[in-house]
Amino acid sequence: MFKKASDKRVAVFIAEGLEEVEGLTIVDVLFRAGVSCDTVSITRERQVTSSHEVTIVCDRTIFDEGFSFDDYDLLVLPGGIPGTPNLRACAPLCEALVSFSSRGADIAAICAAPSILAELGLLKGRRATANPGFQHVLSEHGAELVADEPVVVDGNLVTSQGAATAMDFGLELVRRLAGDEAASHVAEGVVYRS
């Protein structure tokens, strides 16, 4: 049962071909911390199929009446292939990422998805990480690559490396939105071992 513990709201953007572990781990961890989190399809369909053929039914789509990126305090991009290129091809999402970045609002991306932030120019001069297969994209676009850290925080940006770091990533987002005590409580509840 969800027990709201924060006024913060999070949107996790779901594209065809996402890495489901990277998307759903974040949703689960935020739920456990009492942080409202919507899964948001970037298509007109709420039902999305992951890269491993898992069907996910999203809470809403970016095309729903009344949907606004500005209703959220944090925008999260899971990785996966072809999920990441599909997110990158979504013009409204990319515009929202640029807008959020320009005002210092929180953005998080994991695995291949930090490459989207790099290509949009949002990581220039910023510390960041990504899946090793995509780290060159960050470097090529002026990021200060932190290749060996599972999660990297630089101001309003949180990046992470992949499916195996999804729990670390989710707990960092909980820490950011609900505090250290909430992150510790969730970590204990899921028997997290760092």
TrEMBL record:
<dbReference type="GO" id="GO:0005737">
    <property type="term" value="C:cytoplasm"/>
</dbReference>
<dbReference type="InterPro" id="IPR050325">
    <property type="entry name" value="Prot/Nucl_acid_deglycase"/>
</dbReference>
<protein>
    <submittedName>
        <fullName>DJ-1/PfpI family protein</fullName>
    </submittedName>
</protein>
<feature type="domain" description="DJ-1/PfpI">
    <location>
        <begin position="8"/>
        <end position="175"/>
    </location>
</feature>
<dbReference type="InterPro" id="IPR029062">
    <property type="entry name" value="Class_I_gatase-like"/>
</dbReference>
<dbReference type="InterPro" id="IPR006287">
    <property type="entry name" value="DJ-1"/>
</dbReference>
<dbReference type="InterPro" id="IPR002818">
    <property type="entry name" value="DJ-1/PfpI"/>
</dbReference>
<dbReference type="Pfam" id="PF01965">
    <property type="entry name" value="DJ-1_PfpI"/>
</dbReference>
